[in-house]
Amino acid sequence: MIDDADPNAPRKAWMGLLARAPAERLAALLDARGPRPAMTWLRTPELGSVMVRGRAGGTGAPFNLGEMTVTRCALRLPCGTVGHAYVQGRDKAKAEAAAIVDALMQTGAAEAVRRAILDPLAQEDAGRREARAARAAATKVDFFTVVRGED
Amino acid sequence: MYVAVKGGERAIGNAHAWLAEERRGDTAVAELSVAQIREQLTLAVNRVMAEGSLYDRDLAALAIKQARGDLIEAIFLIRAYRTTLPRLGASIPVDTAAMACDRRISATFKDLPGGQVLGPTFDYTHRLLDFKLAAEGAVPEAPLRAAESGPVPHVAGFLNREGLIEEAPQDDTPPPDLTREPLAMPADRALRLQALARADEGFTLGMAYSTQRGYARTHAFVGELRIGTVAVEMDIPELGFAIEIGEITLTECETVNQFKGSKTEPPQFTRGYGLVFGQTERKAISMALVDRALRWQELGEDDQGAPAQDAEFVLYHGDNIQATGFLEHIKLPHYVDFQSELELVRKLRREAGADAAKEAVQ
């Protein structure tokens, strides 16, 4: 959901998309553009956990539900642009690819990167969601009342 | 008294080697891959993630393979691994109202916005063994239907509008964390919910069932049960804003319970809440019933002395790793402890024998 009022909304959207993307697909799309850009690490990929919180009753006070694995990293392109990644799971190569794309999206290459990497990822992500939603919709109950015999 | 005893290294090494061989089983049968466990034993994977308190499907599948299918052993492996991970932060509380639901049912309202969506459920199956599964074969594709894109509001929201149910107003008190501070009594609701979310499914089910049978009855209806995926967002300090870091499957159950009212509250429905990692609906329903039973004090209900009302009893005995650790340690060498017991019994018997002999003489 892109919030027009939020200047960070586009970056939030692509970072979320990159976090959800299948690792092999992200790497394949990134490498299909040609060689990866030169970069220096600001933080090499690091594995950790994030405590996931819920709310009592869905809306009330927060509580700690349990942790999930997350990998993060940060890198800098030769032009000085910094890319960050926080992605679910323990895949360091995926975090690296996500941080490279995050950095490239802040450069003049953004439009080309969007077309080559983000658009296909977004389309596939929407496809997976729709496929699941359609299966769920097929299990929705259509109630009907059985007509009873009248005297 | 604990005394280190040397010896047994060779026997232990050989036992581990044999364990590895037994884990593999008959080598004429193809070996299970971690991916097969992850994809085909999903509900076992979900239970290990929920009670291991770490959402990572590949790790849970690996733990199940390593534990030879012993889920409590697998949960133990996940809990041990979890402690090696640096904590990068805490998420923004997940928004379950925005869940992409695979399943969403209500036992209290037939017609509700979003409808009754059954999802991939065992309900309505005949519980007859399906011998077709013993033979390999293609699975027919599940039918599709155009999905309506609209919000799927929580059922409790409808009752809220009439004031018939207690509200759960938003509150942003940072919750206590029993993985950082040992569980201590009295435990507030946030701490109880954390402990219940990772508690043993069987224990939680037994406790919940006891409330249905009359040990602190709470007259629970499943107001809503929903299973699906939610986005996990976290504030990233180096960015200065929150981003989505991934997506997890959750099961949420909200019960609607009878409440006669108290001195300060008019009669209205009250709520129990269950939220668990993965598709784990038996556990989520059980959690909601136990959560509600544990709220007796806050709702001004009577202490019936029922086990499910006793937070200390429930929370300290629901953790299967603590329980199995203490239970199973008694099979490890206690030679010296037992030696002293043996000495004591011999001494008592000698004294009793001496007394009996004296009595015989008199």
Global mean pLDDT of chain A? 92
Task: Indicate the low-confidence ranges of chain B by residue numbers.
Answer: none
Number of strands of chain A: 3
Write the element-wise H/E pattern of chain B from the N-terminal end onward. HHHEHHEEHHHEEEHHHH
The secondary-structure element order of chain A is HHEEEHH
List the strand order in the largest sheet of chain A: 1-2-3
Oligomerization state of this entry?
heterodimer
Which segments of chain A are poorly predicted (pLDDT under 50) over 5 or more consecutive residues?
none
- The total strand number of chain B stands at 6
Strand content of chain B: 5-15%
Q: Helical proportion of chain B?
A: 25-40%
Structural class of chain B: alpha+beta
Please give the count of helices of chain B: 12
Radius of gyration of chain B: 26 Å
Distance between the termini of chain B: 42 Å
Overview of the structural elements:
- Chain A: This is Phosphonate C-P lyase system protein PhnG.
- Chain A: It comes from Thetidibacter halocola.
- Chain A: GO terms for molecular function: lyase activity.
- The complex is a heterodimer of chains A (151) and B (362).
- Chain A is an alpha+beta fold.
- Chain A has one domain.
- Chain A contains four helices and three strands; from the N terminus they run ααβββαα.
- In chain B, strands 3-4-5-6 form a four-stranded antiparallel β-sheet.
- The two termini of chain B are 42 Å apart.
- Chain B folds into two domains: 11-82, no CATH class; 96-119 and 151-168 and 178-324, no CATH class.
- Chain B has helices at 9-24, 34-40, 42-52, 57-66, 71-82, 155-161, 189-197, 201-212, 281-294, 311-317, 320-329, 335-361; strands at residues 54-55, 87-90, 100-105, 220-236, 241-257, 270-277.
- In chain B, helix 2 (34-40) crosses helix 4.
- In chain B, a hairpin with a 4-residue loop joins strand 4 (220-236) and strand 5.
- The model of chain B has no long low-confidence stretch (mean pLDDT 91).
- Chain B is globular.
- Chain B is of the alpha+beta class.
- Classes of the chains: A alpha+beta (151), B alpha+beta (362).
- At the A-B interface, helix 1, strand 1, strand 2, strand 3 and helix 4 of A face strand 1, strand 2, strand 3, helix 7 and strand 4 of B.
